[in-house]
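Quick one: structure tokens for this chain, please?
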Amino acid sequence: MADLNSSLKMGDLTLKNRLVLAPLTRARSDETRVPTALMVEYYKQRANAGLILTEATVIGADAVGYANTPGLWNKEQAEAWRQIIDVVHAQDSKIVAQLWHVGRISDPTFLNGETPVAPSAIQPEGHVSLVRPMRPYVTPKALSVAEIKDIVSAYKRSAELAKESGFDGVELHAANGYLVDQFLQSGTNTREDEYGGSLENRARLLLEVVDELVKIWGAGRVGVHIAPRGDSHDMHDDHPLETFSYVVKELSKRNIAFIFSREYEAEDSIGPKLREQFTGAWIANEGLTATSAKRILSENQADAVAFGKLYIANPDLLIRLTDNLPLNDLDTSTMYPNPEKSLEAGYTDYPILNK
């Protein structure tokens, strides 16, 4: 029976507790995708978590899809991340960089007029996130095999910079309808080459990137982020249990440290079946409460639990959960920068208990 405040051996990492800060896009970097001093304070406040997963961090200028999301593809960005890493380590917490390419969930305005890329030229439903006036996503350009190889190299370079910065590991963002997820799921991948068609081919990009990350970091410091429900950005797979079971089994063969699974609890959840097939640590996420998180840990349904929105509103979430203390309400109007308010509003100004 695991307790929220008990330590956890996760691959080569030892966490001081089983509370995880989920990756959260907050869009507070500067315009050149360099982390800021305000971000240092934000992460410092939340280093009561045993593990911090950074907000999704783009691997190149051609991988972006939102304004002011941080990057990790040049030395200036890497050096700025070091300041965040230092304040997290000062509290004996671990911090892992989540590496991100948005694929088709972008717009030419973010890409110097270029068309977003994807496994196949399938236009997503919906509108470009956080852009006003609202406009639909464009039809992406299908990547050539050579371009896919370049993207794998970009992940490799970003992972190398993460290591130089002093991160404790890296997590591949393979969820939520972004590029790696687009390759994996059959509804967004209709290719007929070695990156499409069969399940093995659709999972090829994910596993090729993981193999590069393992070469740089060792398997014990690599994680993968999945969303088996496929409920973001117009995603769909014909056989999700088969698809994600294959991925989980392949990741187990590679002995990676953890899988982070974003899937709310319901009768149709496939997470429990996936976890049975994985040998590393399992991090549960989405819609958790203090009660459900403790139950999941006590029943060994997960090795750690991750919170997103609750951690935005409650920087001192660990003590609030462990002592059953009241929680701050989330101000949804400041989850992303609000032009009518300061950047600090809803970011670093939530009340912290005096305990």
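The mean pLDDT is 97.
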